[in-house]
Amino acid sequence: MIAVLRLGHRITRDKRITTHVALVARSFGADTIYITTKDSTLEHTISSICQRFGGEFSIHTGVKAKTLLSQWKGTIVHLTMYGEPFETVLPTLNRKKDILIIIGSEKVPFYYYDIADYNVAVGNQPHSEVAALALFLDRYTTGTWQTQKFKGELEIIPSKKGKHVKSR
Amino acid sequence: MIAVLRLGHRITRDKRITTHVALVARSFGADTIYITTKDSTLEHTISSICQRFGGEFSIHTGVKAKTLLSQWKGTIVHLTMYGEPFETVLPTLNRKKDILIIIGSEKVPFYYYDIADYNVAVGNQPHSEVAALALFLDRYTTGTWQTQKFKGELEIIPSKKGKHVKSR
Predict the structure, then answer these.
(1) Chain A contact present for B17, CB below 8 A
(2) Nearest-by-Cβ selection for A158 from B83, B155, B165
(3) Which of B143, B124, B34 lies closest to B86 in space, CA to CA?
(4) Nearest residue of B to residue A25 by CA position?
(5) CB–CB of A162 and B113 under 8 A?
(6) A119: region left, alpha or beta (phi > 0 left; psi from -120 to 50 alpha)
(7) Residue A11: its pLDDT value, please?
(8) What's the CA gap between A86 and A88, in Å, rounded?
(9) Residues 6 or more apart whose Cβ sits within 8 Å of residue B42
(10) CATH-assigned architecture of domain B2-167
(11) Stretch B18-43: mean pLDDT, rounded?
(12) DSSP 3-state assignment of B99?
């Protein structure tokens, strides 16, 4: 199981970024996302995309991070630009275990650096938690997200020009 | 030269997403970003990060997209979930040419699908232009963004726990 934990989501300010984080989690092979702030609109947005485009992805908001982390049996990875290079850490991860990937927002308390088994950087330059999650999942899944079948009501057929959408 | 063209940036709504797009462009090896809406605050934010963290990245806002595209001598790639798989297109690109990567926001007019040499999908699921740009640049630069030296005033030193920042 691949899970993502999004910390410190602020409903107004982070609305679009957290939506992107959740959609990236779904598209790049995660099974679920936990968000610490309760946000029914966000739940609805993501569930609606899952319904139309398929897959088994789930979203849970209003989750208590410390409870989740203290009960987590698998690996905990915290994505931060201060961490160790992801290409160094990835080969050491046991893929048979469940993994929980923590994504911060602004200031992340030291507690999360401490509880994580690995603090992992996707580059040590400031960029985006959306990009960091996408790159980490791309490597973690060894690119298998590209061939995943979502079997939704809607399926996009790759095209040289324009939009080709198949409805079931 | 690697350039990014961000279409349809809405100052309030897209503030954080466009900031992430620009920072991803910089971190993953692009040289410049063009943004069609004039936004001095965004210019200031990105220039300030470039000043502190280094590199030669530049930002231009209030750019006329059609003028830029009509004068562009290199390859034009439009990232869209409706396009052809990026892993199929990437090996066919001539890396000696300059490349302009178009990133849309909501509805992208057909003009851009038409003028692009390639409409390229980073997966055919809805996710994020931030993630799509990061993945495309990661593959286009064959991962060399990871060893790029930015030589800024601030440099982050990778750490197992906590934050280690070196100031020059």
Answers:
(1) yes
(2) B83
(3) B124
(4) B127
(5) yes
(6) beta
(7) 85
(8) 5
(9) B9, B11, B15, B18, B19, B22, B35, B59, B61
(10) 3-Layer(aba) Sandwich (3.40)
(11) 97
(12) strand
Q: Which of A102, A113, A135 is nearest to B27 (CA)?
A: A135
Which pTM was predicted?
A: 0.97
Phi, psi for residue A131 in degrees, rounded to 5: -70, -40
pLDDT at B84 exceeding the cut of 90: yes
Q: Which residue of A has its CA nearest to B136?
A: A135
Residue ranges, chain A, pLDDT below 70: none
Q: Which of A106, A14, A38 is nearest to B13 (CA)?
A: A14
> Letter for the amino acid at A57?
F
State which amino acid sits at residue A115.
I
The C-alpha angle with vertex B40 and arms to B36 and B44, in degrees rounded to 5, equals 115
Both tokens of B155, joined, read 């440099």
Tokens of B70: 């009509």
pLDDT at B151: 92
Q: Where are the domains of chain B?
A: 2-167
One-letter amino acid at B13 equals: R
